[in-house]
Amino acid sequence: MGVPGFSGIGHLDLSVSDAETSAAWYERVLGLARVRRVDFPERTMIVLRHEASGLVIGLNQHQGFPGEPFDEQRAGLDHVGFAVGQRRDLDAWAERLVSLGVEHSPVADTEVGSALVFRDPDHIQLELWWSKPAGGEPTGAAQPDDRAPGAASDG
Predict the structure, then answer these.
(1) pTM above 0.85, yes or no
(2) Residue 20 belongs to what domain range?
(3) Per residue of the chain (155 residues), what is the pLDDT tens digit?
(4) Is 15 in the same domain as 56?
(5) Max Cα distance, the chain (Å)
(6) Alpha-carbon gap, residue 93 to 116, rounded angstroms
(7) Most buried residue, 6, 24, 97, 113, by most Cβ within 10 Å?
(8) Residue 87 forms part of a structural domain
């Protein structure tokens, strides 16, 4: 029997230290819209939606948060990559991040695409990624860290 299929990512839930602070940041920086807030006995969850893609992101503030910042070197999430349609979109995003005072990497061009890396209030690494079309011309000589998405990690 073959592997059952699925149609995409239904939602993404992130654990955050302060759901309201994070929600305000994701709304301001990425333009997500608040759908609802739910206060459960053990956690608060704020649900956001990206209208253009339909992506739903849940921000979960758990009781008993240990206070440690996100670290992609621990088991679990490494980073979240959001796709953009054209390489020049990354330059527009870089300008937006500058205007909002959000620290970010320079746009990194690789053999397979380009990335712009930044972090949310809990230090979760986020990436805007453009995939080079199949058969596209390389942007130049390969750099030692050229790899698939995520190559432009800022630390």
Answers:
(1) no
(2) 9-63
(3) 899 988 888 899 999 999 999 999 999 999 999 999 999 999 999 999 999 999 999 999 999 888 888 888 888 899 999 999 999 999 999 999 999 999 999 999 999 999 999 999 999 999 999 999 987 554 443 333 443 444 444 44
(4) yes
(5) 54
(6) 8
(7) 113
(8) yes
